[in-house]
């Protein structure tokens, strides 16, 4: 990562918006801020205005996942605010739906996420994702990757061209 100059101060990878064209699909994760994606996430997409103008990301699948402080933290609204960015870039929003099966209907433990994507409740920052929340997130990653792979196949990739 350091050789590619895409590592942040804390060792977490950092990507520039123009690098998105190199990927076949996306999962964007962010903390919920009062029922919206944070300003940093919007600024990231704003920094890639040429991607909007060129529609270089059109047809690429994208999903979202998030963390929020508590049940009233706006999980689903946060996901919906992200969809507007994806739509303007021509990306295909891939919701989790209820593909995670019985885990979507779990009522015996606190679980974040919804049909829009995986999620967790962070509380004051001290709560870690549960095993079920981690399974849901892993499932979502695999699900979006499988869709990206299918869309990359030659018989599908030329749609609209």
TrEMBL record:
Residues 18-97 form the NADPH-dependent FMN reductase-like domain. This is NAD(P)H dehydrogenase (quinone). It comes from the Eukaryota. Belongs to the WrbA family. One of its GO terms (cellular component) is membrane. It catalyses: a quinone + NADPH + H(+) = a quinol + NADP(+); a quinone + NADH + H(+) = a quinol + NAD(+). Its EC number is 1.6.5.2. InterPro entries: Flavoprotein-like_sf, FMN_Rdtase-like_dom. SUPFAM superfamilies: Flavoproteins. Its cofactor is FMN. It comes from Stephania yunnanensis. It holds the Pfam family FMN_red. GO terms for molecular function: NAD(P)H dehydrogenase (quinone) activity.
């Amino acid at each position: 990562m350091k050789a590619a100059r895409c590592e942040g101060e804390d060792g977490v990878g950092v990507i520039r918006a123009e690098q998105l064209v190199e990927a076949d699909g996306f999962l964007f994760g962010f903390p919920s801020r009062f029922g919206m994606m944070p300003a940093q996430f919007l600024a990231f997409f704003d920094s890639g205005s040429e991607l909007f103008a060129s529609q270089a990301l059109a047809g690429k699948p994208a999903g979202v996942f998030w963390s929020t402080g508590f049940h009233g933290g706006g999980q689903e609204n946060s996901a919906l605010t992200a969809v507007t960015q994806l739509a303007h870039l021509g990306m295909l929003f891939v919701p989790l739906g209820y593909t995670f099966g019985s885990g979507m209907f779990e009522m015996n433990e606190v679980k974040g996420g919804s049909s829009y994507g995986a999620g967790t409740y962070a509380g004051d920052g001290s709560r870690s994702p549960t095993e079920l929340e981690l399974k849901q997130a892993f499932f979502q990653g695999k699900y979006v990757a499988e869709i990206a792979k299918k869309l990359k196949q030659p018989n599908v990739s030329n749609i609209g061209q």
